[in-house]
Design goal:
two-stranded antiparallel ribbon, 48% helix
């Protein structure tokens, strides 16, 4: 190969690498945020805001039976993330007993956990079983869980140590 042709080929390959790198970065921006977070945190956290479970009030699921957004005036840092609440009473209840109100598996979908995969739950697709809050990726996963909660929990509990070991701890 002549020196000129070698130089042209080298420039072409560098340009191609830049295009591929840009495509990879662009694709990652289109990837659903909850999935991206699912592999990097022990508690589902919005990587842009630092808010746990997208800023929803974890206590309101129990007291109101609804997914209720929290407000910036009532925040508390726990487990390395910021939790939001709709009022002072909910924040105080959480501070007194965070384990009661935090979603099971850090907000990851228990059906996916049972399959050995960390998939972030959606705070608007939820269920309380017994005294635990579960978040699900989709209504279909929630329906799968509801069909046999005891088995879903047993399967998720068996796989959780393995799955959680792949997540970054804050």
């Amino acid at each position: 190969m002549t020196p000129v042709r070698h130089q042209r080929k080298s420039v072409l390959w560098r340009s191609l690498r830049v295009i591929v790198a840009a495509a990879v970065v662009g694709a990652s921006l289109l990837w659903p945020r909850v999935i991206v977070a699912a592999t990097t945190e022990r508690v589902i956290t919005d990587r842009h805001t630092g808010l746990a479970i997208d800023g929803y009030d974890p206590v309101a699921y129990f007291t109101d039976g609804a997914a209720t957004p929290g407000v910036p005036e009532f925040e508390h840092r726990s487990s390395g993330v910021v939790w939001r609440f709709r009022n002072q009473g909910d924040r105080d209840a959480f501070i007194q007993d965070p384990e009661t109100y935090m979603p099971a598996y850090g907000g990851y979908d228990p059906v996916a956990i049972a399959r050995g995969v960390a998939v972030g739950g959606n705070p608007t697709v939820w269920l309380i079983d017994g005294d635990r809050l579960f978040l699900f990726y989709s209504p279909e996963d929630r329906a799968t869980f509801e069909a046999d909660p005891a088995r879903a929990i047993t399967d998720a509990e068996a796989r959780w140590p393995e799955v959680s070991s792949t997540l970054v701890q804050r």
